[in-house]
Amino acid sequence: MNQKVSYTNLIKTEAKRLGFLSCGISKAQFLEEEAPRLEKWLNKNMHGEMRYMENHFDKRLDPTKLVEDSKSVISLLLNYYPEEKQNENSFKLSKYAFGNDYHFVIKDKLKSLLNFIQEEIGEVHGRAFVDSAPVLDKAWAAKSGLGWIGKHSNLLTQQVGSFYFIAELIIDLDLEYDTPVTDHCGTCTACIDACPTQAITEPYVVDGSKCISYFTIELKENIPSEFKGKMDDWMFGCDVCQDVCPWNRFSKSHSEPLFNPHPELLSMTKKDWEEITEDTFKKVFKNSAVKRTKFSGLKRNINFLKE
Question: Which family, according to UniProt (predicted)?
């Protein structure tokens, strides 16, 4: 077995041991297909107020600009599908935000993986990325054979659907590269038909500025009044396009204790949410990604839903 193959096997085995669902590897090079697509999406202003999407255009498309002399992009998936559900009579929270903030949970696992690579293989330089730097996560995961990008623009796999986080290690080590898988969306349009705000403007294109997740998390101003009654009770994020996807019938519960929800979170009713105090907010969302909206942001969202 040549060195590249044995290093690759070593890394994939350790990724599994650390709890990642799967691991795929691509050559670190310019994302040619993505460049015109990203440019068109930005030109149509589909990123709304997310001005940061305009920054570092070249870095988004070329990993060698993020990590000098990088050779490989290691993409990793981490399941977050919860076993339990919220109260039926509740304002809704995206499943990914039930437990501890994924940025910290995954960052720790990525650091462990990088340390392992350095200990087992030697002088390898790299950086860990969890949705916080200009990296096109889904494009790299698809390139690495971990799934295909569905019509709702999320990464999909036949085995486990789409309820998982994507993260990367970009390193200066040559490895064996995986190949993309085929698209299995077929003629299905479940996600397009179900989107409450018609944010999926055509298959594979999501207008971010119409997405409920954008309104409830990214948008700092008031939610536009034309979306009154169209928010489907979502107060933080939105899972509609994933919930209706036939491939998510195969989702299995995660086994990461840090993603388990605060017990109060699941039992809260609409009335509880409407009366939530800052103290309760701090307690229920102590280490949660929901802190991004702050108490005032969550209150704004709840008020918009109940008016």
Answer: Belongs to the QueG family.
